[in-house]
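Troubleshooting log. The previous structure file for this entry was overwritten by mistake, so regenerating from the original sequence record. Sequence copied from the archived sheet and checked twice against the printout by T.R.
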Amino acid sequence: MNQLNNLSQKLNNLKSENLYRRLTSCQNFPNNEVMIDGKQYISFCSNDYLSLAFNEEIQESAKKTIIEYGYGGLSSRYIYGDNDLYQKLEAKIAKINQKDSAIIFGSGYLTNIGVIPALCDKNDLILADKLSHSCLIDGAKLSGAKFTRFAHNNLESLENLLKKYRNNYQKCLIITETVFSMDGNLGKINEIIALAKKYDCFLLTDNAHGLGVIDSKISQDILDYDLHLKIGTFSKSCSGYGGYVCADEIIIDYLRNFSKSAIYSTALPPAILAGNLKALEIIGKGELTQKLWENIDYFCDLMNIKNSESAIIPIIIGNAKKTLAISNKLKEEGFLVSAIRPPTVAIGKSRLRITITASHKKDDLKKLAENIHKYHDHIINR
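Regenerated output below.
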């Protein structure tokens, strides 16, 4: 009973600190509309940046695939679950990322906790950006490697760690993100590639929030590096599911043989693979990306925010209780905006995390901005 009391006390502590999480049942509709407890809202917390969740072409592709291939993944790909859709999707995502080959995992999380421990062990060194996603940190810890973090986007901090530790370990893996999920800013990829080359390191960049959003802006500018692993997910811009890593052929061949979360997981359902393929086809046309950036620029102008680098717009409030209060006021006005609090972000860095999509209407963007200004001034200054 004491063990249950301990768990209960920890939950009560979260509640008292305004950090308690609870699930909310909702029904989603096209154009960012969400129904919760019989009330309709406009969502600004979806990762469906290109508004493909209800795309009719993707839905039709999934339906046809279920009839042809069946519903389930059947088993691990290594036993009975592989099919030609996997090969087509891996070839497609590798080409988009300008790499030789790719391997698909069950999710973005499974990708990172599979790739990193396969690549590194107790004889190796891992250096990760301070703001790297939780799954990247978990992957680093699972590897058993010497693990430490460098200051966010700070090249001097990274090089100081390389000078201090690199010669003491066999392999070194540097981890960063292309788009940071809570700040919405871009990683300094080319600058880190230069350091990776200088110190003979692998580089892993997680592009979970960039596929179809920033690829067209940066893909041609990223330097080629044979030890660069490009990781991402189909669950956001593609509105599908599954994760992936793209790299040189020998790295992918190695991961196919040593990455446990790929080997020992059931294959993705064929309809998901087909939907991902169709989504990439639609994204490749560029029209949705253009609409998305028109909305991002419009909203940032309304909020007096300059040079947004992605579809993630953080409004830093600081205090967790006040952040939650503003989020609740916005909900009363019909807008769903996430209140992000510790431990997801640092203490004192609580924020409204606004995500813009291609299908947001200008009127809704304008109303949201007006309400944020109103409640920000009212709650922060009271």
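The chain has a mean pLDDT of 95. Archived copy saved in two places this time.
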